[in-house]
Amino acid sequence: MNRKAWAWAFYDWANSAFPTVVSTFVIAAYFTQGIAPDAATGQAQWGWMQTCAGLAIALLSPALGAVADAGGRRRFMLTLCTVIMVVATAGIWFAEPNPAFTLWALACVGIGTVAFELATVFYNSLLPGLAPPEKLGRVSGLAWGLGYAGGLVCLLLCLFLLVKPDPALFGLDRGNAEHVRATALLCAAWITLFCWPVLLAMPDPAGPRPGWWQAARTGLAETWALLKTLPHNPTMARFLLARLFYTDGLNTLFAFGAIFAAGVFGMSVDEVILFGIALNVTAGLGAAGFGLIEDRFGSKRTVLVSLAAISLISAGLLLVSGKPAFWALALGLGIFMGPAQAASRTLMARLAPAGEAAAHFGLFALSGRVTGFFGPAVLAVVTEATGSQRAGMATVLAFLLVGASVLATVRLPPGQS
């Protein structure tokens, strides 16, 4: 890969700390065990927070993507969203282990989630210009693998610098969960330290730019025009529809994996971090490995194989009762997490017309978030109605299977199959 491609991929290394530390493993488990009154209530509350974040992302991502295309401000928008993500992440430090801090914790995580997803729109939109179409799969897959590696290293630092030492380092009060809350500060510092290469290597285009209001009008008009073309572009329409379902399932699975492990299998925070470290190893290997063969195997086939494997392994996870079986299945699941997402990004980069990447990746984000509130909402409703975390997590399978079924009907243009 060239210098710009490496700089772009390094942002995955930086921002993957947020979903790894905050959304999936450490803070999610801390919220359920330390802030919420019980595990089932915590899973439901986390679900409603993810629902609100999904609605905000669905409303903002396509419009902001189009504005970035029209105004040539992708780097500025990426920087702004990254700063908001860092500030919101650092704010989690103030969420003490008390139900009184429920709203504060959920607000910080929710705002950080919205900023993370919006930053991803502008970040992904830079992919088409990094390599020839026949090499995009390798760039995207290796970047996703680098992201898992970054999440892994950040988790290791969280575990051995903050969570595990007893007495805690840096004078942190374990009784007030400061050793766990400090992982949010470490995550914010990690993103700040490593996010800059892409911002230096990929400046916005030179030349005159329209004002913000004009860019907004142009961008929104472009978004509306893109939406109107979808009925005449069945390949793009079916792909976005498929992604609408399977990404909803994947996002819900990621958002509630640690909560499920902590509540159903009784894992402590340090056990969840160890689980996250191991999962990131297998996920990174899977993303990088599939990235090397995706250009020859095909992006669509890569996504379908990954979704089939994730569905089968997830069904097994709902049935097992012991920790060893859970570990074995979950680590196998990790192998297919990265390829399902990285290959989707590659396929979108190949299908998007030149010069409209950010707008199309806005629709890409929209397809992953327009019903992003629905998966967590269904999970929350089922969990509340049954009082069972297993029953709530079972709803994920329906989204994965519907999305895979729709994707199987997508007919790609010649040369893309």
Task: Set down the secondary structure blueprint.
Elements: H1 3-15, H2 17-24, H3 26-35, H4 39-71, H5 74-91, H6 102-124, H7 136-163, H8 178-194, H9 196-201, H10 212-229, H11 234-264, H12 269-297, H13 299-319, H14 323-351, H15 357-369, H16 374-386, H17 389-408
Helix pairs in contact: 1-7, 1-8, 2-3, 2-6, 2-7, 2-8, 3-4, 3-11, 3-12, 4-6, 4-10, 4-11, 4-15, 4-16, 5-6, 5-8, 6-15, 7-8, 7-12, 7-14, 11-14, 11-15, 11-16, 11-17, 12-14, 13-14, 13-17, 16-17
Main attributes?
single chain, 417 residues, mainly alpha, Growth Hormone, Chain: A, 79% helix, globular
Short précis:
By secondary structure, the chain is mainly α.
Characterize the structure shown.
This protein has helices spanning 3-15, 17-24, 26-35, 39-71, 74-91, 102-124, 136-163, 178-194, 196-201, 212-229, 234-264, 269-297, 299-319, 323-351, 357-369, 374-386, 389-408. It has 417 residues and is mainly alpha-helical. Helix 4 packs antiparallel against helix 15, helix 11 runs parallel beside helix 16 (374-386) and helix 11 (234-264) packs antiparallel against helix 17. The two termini are 23 Å apart.
Q: How far is it from the N-terminal to the C-terminal residue, by CA?
A: 23 Å
CATH class category label: Mainly Alpha
Query: Which consecutive residue ranges, at least 5 long each, have pLDDT under 50?
Result: none
Helix-strand pattern, N to C? Answer: HHHHHHHHHHHHHHHHH
Helix content: over 70%
User: What's the name of the CATH homologous superfamily?
Assistant: MFS general substrate transporter like domains
Strand content: under 5%
Integer average pLDDT: 82
SSE-based structural type:
mainly alpha
> What's the story with the biggest beta sheet?
none
Structural domains: how many: 1
Helix run count = 17
Radius of gyration: 20 Å
Look up the CATH topology.
Growth Hormone, Chain: A
